[in-house]
Amino acid sequence: MLLCLLTSGCVRRRLTIRSTPPGAVVYIDDQLIGSTPVSTQFTYYGTRKFRLVKDGYETLTTLQRLRPPWYQIPPLDFVTENLIGREYRDERILEFNLLPQRLVPNTELLTRANGLRRANAQGFLAPRPSGIPLTRPATGAPGLPAPAAEPSFQPPGQFRPQVITLPPAGAPAFPSGN
Questions:
Q1: Which of 21, 90, 119, 132 fits a disulfide with 124 by CB distance 3.0 to 4.6 angstroms?
Q2: CA distances from 132 to 11, 81, 99, 136 (A)
Q3: Residue 169 falls within a domain, yes or no?
Q4: Structure confidence at residue 10 (pLDDT)
Q5: pLDDT at 159
Q6: 138 part of a folded domain
């Protein structure tokens, strides 16, 4: 009975995330946590990826290392969690400042677009957004639209949006033909 009373030790870990301004949506390791200020429990220490998203502000993505306290360093962690009849609390508070979203002037966008076009013409490839197949479907493939024509430069005021339909995430890029 005495052994059972002594083995009731535990460690409670809590992480609180705050942002300026409040109300940013928080993702930890790509898992939705909530809107700031938000608190959550955690089990493991180490480097974590934090992403804060708020309309009108730049998205903030950062890697933050959570170092264990002295009583969570092996082999002391076994003793504090199993043999000492005391509760340990590890409460962490992380604060982030979000920057207002910068509006990029049209001239800068056009300059960057022309630079990408020149690089493409010289054989350099721009990074491919995730979810887009590596190869284009052949023209006339059953069940797939013909590939879109290469975009051409249009002066401001004559812009016509181009709609590109992609297969849903996880769907095969080409139908099996069955």
A1: 119
A2: 45, 47, 30, 9
A3: no
A4: 75
A5: 46
A6: no
Distance set, CA 167 to CA 5, 21, 98, 127, 143 (Å): 59, 37, 34, 19, 12
pLDDT at 158 over 70: no
Tell me the average pLDDT across 146-151: 52
The CATH number for 32's domain is 2.60.40
| Structural domain total, the chain | 1
In the chain, the percentage of residues whose pLDDT exceeds 90 is 28
Cβ(66)–Cβ(94) below 8 Å: no
pLDDT on residue 175? 54
Q: Is residue 174 part of a domain?
A: no
**DSSP labels, 93-118:** EEEEEPPBPPPPPHHHHHHHHHHHHH
Compute the distance between CA of residue 129 and CA of residue 111 in angstroms, rounded to an integer: 21
Do the beta carbons of residue 101 and residue 23 sit within 8 Å?
Answer: no
| Structural domain of 31 | 2-97
Nearest alpha-carbon partner for 41 in 53, 28, 52, 50:
28
Q: Is 14 among the domain residues?
A: yes
Q: Does an H or E element contain 82, and which?
A: helix 76-82
Q: What is the pLDDT of residues 5-64, one digit of tens each?
A: 455 567 788 999 999 999 999 999 999 999 999 999 988 888 999 999 999 999 999 998
Query: Which 3 state secondary structure label does DSSP give 120?
Result: helix
C-alpha 57/C-alpha 172 separation (Å) is: 35
